[in-house]
């Protein structure tokens, strides 16, 4: 996150961190959001091997503040038993259309995530529920604090962003035809804050009548905090029924 502030996982207790094991050890891969005790929503592009991804190489943490520190008091580590990548995820135009994936998580004792002050679920907006342009939302993540840095943030950070209109975001001064109806754009009016590399898969949340909803999944953008290049997010409300179908949950709001 660029231009934000230090957060605390208690402020965003649905925040998940996806790691993958490689020859070089365990590497932080993407953010995610806890939408039920057993399910984390993230981005499809976090899994370059697609449906061939080895699930036993993945692990998911919830309740985590620092990416390189263990906090046994707060964090929970979970295994991944299922991965659903959206059937129409498509990057042939370089715009990550349908950039959404679900991870089914399982604790070592065969249960799921346990709710606590640092671990809670976020609501999913209903189909095509949309907010007005200019609504203030928040993005969180462990990603870069500036575009040019090679390292990620050590700690969870947050930034306030405003929703942009589809018309502005798909204008030729912005991203043109790269923006589909499955995406939404959010930025700061002075371009000082944005998601950045490493924040992918993580949450863009907006408060509606005192409840917090996951409106976006960090997906892409040209650089970070560049003028007229806002962050692009998967529009989660379009996937309400897809999420119900894959998870078998009765409701999400
Ligand atoms: C990335 O590479 C990335 N400024 C994520 C978000 C944004 C840019 C890049 C948005 O993961």
Automatic annotation (TrEMBL):
<dbReference type="GO" id="GO:1901701">
    <property type="term" value="P:cellular response to oxygen-containing compound"/>
</dbReference>
<dbReference type="GO" id="GO:0033628">
    <property type="term" value="P:regulation of cell adhesion mediated by integrin"/>
</dbReference>
<keyword id="KW-0964">Secreted</keyword>
<keyword id="KW-0720">Serine protease</keyword>
<dbReference type="GO" id="GO:0033993">
    <property type="term" value="P:response to lipid"/>
</dbReference>
<keyword id="KW-0645">Protease</keyword>
<feature type="domain" description="Peptidase S1">
    <location>
        <begin position="1"/>
        <end position="248"/>
    </location>
</feature>
<dbReference type="GO" id="GO:0005615">
    <property type="term" value="C:extracellular space"/>
</dbReference>
<keyword id="KW-0378">Hydrolase</keyword>
<dbReference type="GO" id="GO:0031639">
    <property type="term" value="P:plasminogen activation"/>
</dbReference>
<keyword id="KW-0732">Signal</keyword>
<protein>
    <recommendedName>
        <fullName>trypsin</fullName>
        <ecNumber>3.4.21.4</ecNumber>
    </recommendedName>
</protein>
<keyword id="KW-0245">EGF-like domain</keyword>
<keyword id="KW-0420">Kringle</keyword>
<keyword id="KW-1015">Disulfide bond</keyword>
<dbReference type="GO" id="GO:0004252">
    <property type="term" value="F:serine-type endopeptidase activity"/>
</dbReference>
């Amino acid at each position: 996150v660029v231009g934000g502030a230090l957060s605390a996982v208690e402020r965003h207790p649905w925040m998940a961190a996806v790691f993958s094991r490689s020859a070089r050890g365990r590497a932080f891969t993407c953010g995610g959001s806890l939408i039920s005790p057993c399910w984390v929503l993230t981005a499809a592009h976090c899994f370059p091997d697609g449906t061939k991804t080895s699930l036993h190489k993945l692990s998911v943490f919830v309740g985590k503040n620092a990416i390189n520190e263990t906090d046994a008091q707060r964090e929970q580590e979970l295994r991944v038993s299922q991965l659903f990548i959206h059937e129409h995820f498509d990057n042939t135009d370089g715009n990550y259309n349908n950039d959404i994936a679900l991870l089914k998580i399982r604790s070592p004792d065969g249960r799921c995530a346990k709710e606590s002050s640092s671990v809670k679920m976020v609501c999913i907006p209903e189909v095509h529920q949309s907010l007005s342009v200019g609504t203030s939302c928040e993005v969180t993540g462990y990603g870069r604090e500036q575009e040019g840095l090679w390292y990620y943030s050590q700690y969870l950070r947050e930034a306030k962003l405003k929703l942009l209109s589809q018309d502005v975001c798909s204008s030729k001064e912005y991203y043109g035809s790269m923006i589909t109806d499955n995406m939404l754009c959010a930025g700061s009016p002075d371009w000082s804050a944005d998601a950045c590399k490493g924040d992918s898969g993580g949450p863009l949340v907006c408060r509606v009548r005192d409840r917090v909803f996951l409106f976006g999944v960090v997906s892409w953008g040209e650089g970070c905090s560049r003028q007229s290049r806002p962050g692009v997010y998967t529009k989660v409300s379009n996937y309400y029924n897809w999420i119900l179908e894959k998870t078998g949950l009765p409701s999400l709001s």
